[in-house]
């Protein structure tokens, strides 16, 4: 066990900036804090649902049927998230060849990889765990035994995910695993957002209880581990025996199978026919390289999917047609900056090769700015086609979105170049101060250039009345100055400072 604690202690050092190593510091502390926040939010959600739907259906509480549906959904999302990352940690980890040379048993390496993966991809379990506390409080059952039942149920899911990771590692690459894992984060977030919305939990949707009879038979099947867990929480503690033995059996196989395999799997090498194509421009190879990098970069894929999915989710769930426009404007400019950071850092890692090419540094940097800007601008235009049914103003804000994205991208690269000694090999390239500065600028500029005009438009169209705008309108020429002149002036300043910062950029 001592070797395991040493590996866990120093594993976070590679995932953060170089600083003093502590067991509960850095990224681990941030993830644990996020788990606690999500667990508290889920706890309030379960309390509301269990209290509101506290009725009996064929001897089973209806709130338990709904909770079982949520738990099985989040269990599958956990498998969807954990499985690709355990495949990476066990078979695609760049530090694994070094770890295999250490006097550490393979079972210790397996537990280290499992715990390390669980820390960074166990969000779905933080949505399930509060049910083990909230339900016993409402139905006056044993909280301690309910938590024990959850631990056995979680052990079953983790064991299945570990075995699935072995199979998955033979079929998909590291890049595909990261994309699948990041996609599961999106599904997890949006599933909880949608299922906990007032529209989904409205009583009108659950008036016909016959549809849930079949769901009850599936969830509470005598051979279902989920049914055992739900019955334990409901006070039937004799189900602890089968769930305990099943968790031990699956844990045994999930350990025995991986340690009998070679952790360093050699992939099939495929011959690729390399075709040389004549470029129309000397910059086209850079454009193609950057686009291929974004296609393979899991973080950039996640940012792009999130920027599309979240505004669309607001569009279908929010009564205000302008809220998706403001949210996308803020996300668009901030995510453009982050993608530009990824592209610029990728170019810096290739130094000194870029400086030997017959292309100016400004042209190389220009591609890092315009590629994410154009991508997110087209995403905005696509989303505007959905929003145009509710408001025509989504099209009028397109030039504003473009200017905001350009400024944020230039600002992000400018912050990078201010520190020549920056270590671009780190995963987190921007410091926490720089990251928060970009986020603050994005929200502040979006609030002035998008939110203020939108607020004024909603007030004038009578969507809702805002008292302070009414008072401002009573003063002649003050409302045009605040809601039109100031945002326009800020846009011109953004254009000016974008050109000014761009002249100072270099690789």
TrEMBL record:
Keywords: Membrane, Transmembrane, Transmembrane helix. The keyword Transmembrane applies. The keyword Transmembrane applies. Signal peptide: none annotated. The chain crosses the membrane at residues 21-47, 59-83, 118-139, 151-173, 179-196, 239-259, 298-316, 322-345, 369-388, 394-416, 436-457, 477-499. This is Uncharacterized protein.
């Amino acid at each position: 066990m001592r070797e395991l604690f040493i590996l866990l202690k120093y594993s976070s050092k590679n995932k953060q900036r170089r600083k003093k190593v502590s067991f509960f510091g850095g990224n681990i502390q941030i993830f644990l804090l996020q788990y606690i926040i999500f667990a508290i939010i889920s706890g309030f959600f379960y309390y509301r649902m269990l209290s509101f739907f506290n009725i009996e259906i064929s001897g089973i509480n209806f709130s338990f049927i709904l909770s079982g549906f949520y738990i099985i959904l989040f269990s599958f999302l956990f498998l969807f998230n954990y499985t690709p990352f355990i495949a990476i940690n066990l078979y695609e980890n760049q530090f694994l060849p070094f770890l295999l040379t250490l006097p550490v048993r393979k079972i210790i390496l397996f537990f280290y990889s499992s715990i390390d993966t669980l820390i960074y991809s166990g969000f779905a379990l933080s949505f399930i765990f509060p049910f083990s506390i909230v339900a016993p409080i409402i139905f006056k059952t044993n909280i301690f035994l309910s938590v024990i039942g959850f631990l056995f149920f979680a052990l079953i899911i983790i064991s299945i995910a570990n075995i699935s990771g072995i199979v998955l590692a033979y079929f998909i690459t590291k890049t595909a695993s990261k994309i699948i894992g990041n996609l599961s984060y999106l599904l997890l977030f949006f599933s909880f957002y949608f299922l906990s919305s007032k529209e989904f939990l409205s009583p009108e949707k659950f008036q016909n209880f016959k549809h849930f009879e079949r769901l009850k038979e599936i969830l509470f099947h005598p051979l279902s581990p989920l049914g055992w867990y739900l019955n334990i929480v409901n006070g039937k503690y004799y189900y602890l025996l089968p769930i305990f033995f099943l968790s031990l059996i699956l844990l045994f196989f999930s350990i025995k199978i991986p340690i009998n395999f070679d952790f360093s799997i050699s992939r099939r090498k495929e011959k690729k026919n390399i075709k040389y194509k004549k470029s129309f421009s000397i910059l086209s190879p850079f454009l193609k390289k950057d686009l291929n990098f974004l296609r393979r970069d899991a973080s950039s894929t996640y940012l792009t999917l999130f920027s599309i999915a979240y505004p669309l989710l607001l569009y279908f769930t929010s009564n205000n047609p302008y809220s998706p426009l403001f949210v996308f404007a803020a996300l668009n400019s901030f995510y453009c900056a982050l993608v530009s950071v990824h592209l610029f850092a990728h170019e810096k890692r290739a130094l000194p090769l870029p400086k030997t090419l017959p292309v100016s540094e400004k042209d190389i940097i220009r591609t890092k700015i315009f590629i994410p800007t154009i991508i997110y601008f087209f995403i905005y235009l696509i989303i505007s086609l959905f929003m145009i049914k509710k408001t025509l103003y989504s099209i009028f804000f397109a030039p504003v979105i473009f200017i905001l994205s350009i400024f944020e991208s230039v600002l992000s690269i400018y912050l990078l170049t201010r520190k020549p000694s920056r270590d671009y090999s780190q995963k987190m390239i921007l410091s926490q101060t720089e990251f928060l500065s970009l986020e603050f600028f994005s929200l502040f500029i979006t609030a002035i250039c998008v939110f203020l005009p939108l607020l004024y438009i909603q007030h004038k169209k009578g969507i809702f009345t805002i008292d302070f705008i009414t008072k401002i309108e009573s003063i002649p020429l003050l409302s045009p100055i605040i809601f039109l002149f100031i945002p326009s002036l800020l846009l011109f300043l953004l254009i000016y400072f974008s050109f000014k910062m761009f002249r100072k950029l270099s690789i």
